[in-house]
């Protein structure tokens, strides 16, 4: 039973003095392919519910899925841009899910890229400097339907009068990008979480694989947070085992990512300080109240009963194909910014205004539209 009764929280400064936060981020990005992962249904956002569906994306028994080649290409380009190794043989697995209204085969997934070296990372900058966040893996999935719980106080299934399900989103190709546990940023951890998602969003936008609209759910973040007792030195800290984590699901703005991580640090710190323990579970970010509420218990041993998908051949890109896709990668956004800044002779502050105004993006989009390679800024925002 979920209520928006707030948990005890410790003041942030005290929390990070007593505990060292560890972070793990799972980002889901919907690809902007014209059609879905395994069928020809449209992926356009905002249509009347259940008007862009067919037996395949409804997961009906006997429907035959066919892989969308454009989605596989995007998946490989994302893996390459993150510095991952592309798996030469990615078998697909599926699982059967039950919603209040139907039982369906869904969440087919196949790993397309996996990091094998610590060079696989995204660097992101915060006001306190740059951090490197290591990537564990990226894999392909299909999105699920979207439920709307009607009635009840929380908008969640508990206490609702009835639920509605829209399957327009089901089957849209999705890439999940998972980080390794990130440690060592101390009180800056919430900022790093935000900066990482922002850096990833920039990269995905530069790749042109997604419209990365967090407010429309095409980029969503699950934030894993745990705490461990603070040690005297970084060396000693590294010896302290990780604590139990919670996973706050579907956080859908940069600001909320930072706030949710910060809140979890304060909540877990209060519990641990009072001699309690952390329950490994999913949690939900409540934007209005600015807190997380308990979801479902989630153990590492949870068995989703994925089974080999008999109707899909493995995704097995050959080396030449991977190299062809590597040649299509754009310049990495941070490098691009640095290069433009040098070429235009802007200060850091001027460049920040320019980036905030979306000028470097606008210029890229404009060039793409006109099919020309111009030089020099189209829009300049200068601090007065
Ligand atoms: P699952 O696939 O069951 O969600 P994973 O082991 O893939 O779990 O981890 C999910 C995310 O949680 C990853 O980003 C990982 O780095 C992170 N993570 C794992 N253990 C911890 C921990 N103790 N504290 C914080 N983050 C963690
Ligand atoms: Zn369909």
Automatic annotation (TrEMBL):
InterPro entries: Asn/Gln-tRNA_amidoTrfase_suB/E, Asn/Gln-tRNA_Trfase_suB/E_cat, Gln-tRNA_amidoTrfase_suB_CS, Gln_synth/guanido_kin_cat_dom. Residues 92-103, 112-125 have a biased composition (Low complexity). Residues 22-319 form the Aspartyl/Glutamyl-tRNA(Gln) amidotransferase subunit B/E catalytic domain. The keyword Ligase applies. The keyword Membrane does not apply. Residues 92-125, 362-384 are annotated as: Disordered. Keywords: ATP-binding, Ligase, Nucleotide-binding, Protein biosynthesis. Pfam families: GatB_N (PF02934). It comes from the Bacteria. PANTHER family: GLUTAMYL-TRNA GLN AMIDOTRANSFERASE SUBUNIT B MITOCHONDRIAL AND PROKARYOTIC PET112-RELATED, GLUTAMYL-TRNA(GLN) AMIDOTRANSFERASE SUBUNIT B, MITOCHONDRIAL. This is Aspartyl/glutamyl-tRNA(Asn/Gln) amidotransferase subunit B.
